[in-house]
Specification:
This protein is an alpha+beta fold. Helices cover about 50% and strands about 30% of the residues. A two-stranded antiparallel ribbon has the order 1-2. The protein is flat and about 40 Å long.
Length: about 70
């Protein structure tokens, strides 16, 4: 249920949610669930332009924020 932004990116790119690995990842003293997504090769080939464009927009946003961190 956490990290709605990450999940929304996968869904906008037409990835399919395959399942949840409950307690799969350990971070300090907490166990975190991991949601698995997939995409068939034929869908990847169809959507690769949209995937690349969205990836570039996300990268630009992240790199801009890292250059100007909030204090």
């Amino acid at each position: 249920e956490k990290n709605h932004r990450s999940r929304s990116v996968a869904e906008r790119l037409a990835f399919t949610e395959e399942g949840t690995l409950y307690g799969y990842y350990r971070h300090h003293h907490d166990y975190i669930d991991v949601v698995m997504y997939s995409m068939l090769r034929k869908n990847w080939k169809t959507n690769w332009i949209r995937i690349t464009e969205l990836g570039m927009r996300i990268w630009k946003t992240v790199s801009r924020k890292s250059k100007n961190p909030r204090t």
